[in-house]
Design a protein that fits this description.
Layout (H helix, E strand, L loop, with lengths): L1 H23 L5 H15 L8 H16 L4 H6 L4 H25 L4 H8 L4 H11 L3 H30 L22 H21 L4 H17 L6 H16 L4 H5 L5 H25 L4 H8 L4 H11 L3 H29 L3
Helix pairs in contact: 1-2, 1-11, 2-11, 3-9, 3-10, 3-11, 3-15, 5-6, 5-13, 5-16, 6-7, 6-8, 6-16, 7-8, 7-16, 8-13, 8-14, 9-10, 13-14, 14-15, 14-16, 15-16
């Protein structure tokens, strides 16, 4: 027990140092990026970092609470506008994932099930758990998912933030965290914060045990939104967002191992194709969402980043755009991957003879 605690404290210390340093450099999502880089480097250099899984659920719950407090009465009516972009995102992900998977299969020694599973924008842990069920190679699929995840977390948000600042500066701003939906100033009331955090804790626990995909984030998001719509008093202080970003980065960093990196020597071409797929998912689908819907540029881009739902919700809160819509569109992507793709891949791999 003492050893585990020491490992946890060391991991948090390294992650916090990286988060503080990169955040001070004004890098977009700097707290998350810094924690990933520092903890990931520590792991690769032979470190023995530790981060308990239940903290990930807590981070997801806080992220959901942050998104929920941005939802007011007027936002509920606007949610109808995401039906069309949700269908576009759903269809685009399926097409890009299968085209990339088949290309990987026919240009390398990777089997078709592993190639398809490696191309879908799911979480690294989720994909590793799916591998055995669909007949894929867990080591190869996890290594290729690491390429997508690091690109989507470390690079794409920075490029998206630059694009938004250049082409949509009026939308690419950090919305005032203490503004009410109606435009009034929110009073810093500890009672309101306590009530909001209690709702986050209870709904997050219920969401976690429910088995619903991303339930630890989705349940708090809607629970806090319901409270805010009724009272307009949901409040979570901004420092908690930075802490959540840091912890999310630590959670990602501890999953990076030297063994994963060494596998890239035999998976170079598939890794390049996965990276191209990641770029197309973000920019091609993001451009389509932006041009064919009533969505601003930051919302379209951050909703299309193939990374974690809670991670992108936290980033979009910092970089502008409509965070609730980003979260819901990311949820559509996640449900698409978790609910439909594994069964579809298993059936397709059994049928595909080439």
């Amino acid at each position: 027990m003492g050893e585990m605690l020491a490992r946890l404290l060391l991991t948090l210390l390294i992650g916090s140092a990286g988060a503080w340093l990169v955040y001070k450099l004004r890098v977009p999502a700097g707290a998350m990026v810094g924690a990933i880089i520092f903890v990931g480097a520590f792991q690769i250099l032979g470190g023995n970092g530790y981060f308990p899984k239940f903290v990930k659920a807590a981070v997801q719950a806080v992220a959901g609470g942050f998104v929920g407090q941005r939802i007011g009465r007027g936002d509920l009516q606007e949610m109808r506008t995401i039906i069309k972009p949700s269908l576009q995102l759903f269809g685009g992900i399926i097409c890009l994932s299968f085209c990339t998977g088949l290309l990987i299969h026919h240009t390398s020694s990777v089997d078709v099930a592993t190639a398809l599973l490696s191309s879908i924008p799911g979480g690294m842990t989720d994909v590793a758990l799916m591998s055995a069920d669909v007949g894929a190679d867990p080591a190869q699929s996890t290594a290729l998912q690491l390429v997508r995840y690091l690109l989507a977390i470390l690079i794409l948000p920075q490029v998206d933030a630059w694009l938004c600042g250049r082409f949509a500066p009026e939308a690419a701003r950090d919305a005032e965290p203490d503004m009410l939906p109606g435009g009034g100033k929110k009073r810093r009331d500890r009672r309101h914060m306590a009530v909001t955090l209690l709702i986050v804790a209870v709904s997050g626990a219920v969401g976690k045990v429910s088995g619903f995909p991303a339930g630890a984030m989705v349940f708090p998001m809607f629970a806090v939104a319901a409270y805010n719509v009724r009272t307009e008093q949901a409040y979570i202080p901004k420092p908690m967002k930075l802490a959540a970003q840091c912890l999310a980065g630590v959670n990602i960093g501890v999953t990076i191992t030297l063994a994963d990196l060494l596998r890239f020597r035999e998976l170079l071409l598939p890794a390049v194709l996965v990276a191209v797929n990641c770029l197309l998912t973000n920019y091609l689908l993001g451009f389509i969402l932006y041009k064919t819907n009533d969505l601003d540029l930051p919302t379209s881009l951050f909703a299309s980043v193939p990374a974690g739902m809670s991670d992108m919700a936290l980033v979009s809160l910092e970089q502008g755009g409509d965070a609730p819509k980003v979260a819901v569109l990311q949820l559509v992507r996640y449900l698409c991957v978790m609910a439909f793709m594994p069964s579809f891949i298993k059936l397709f791999a059994a049928w595909y003879l080439f």
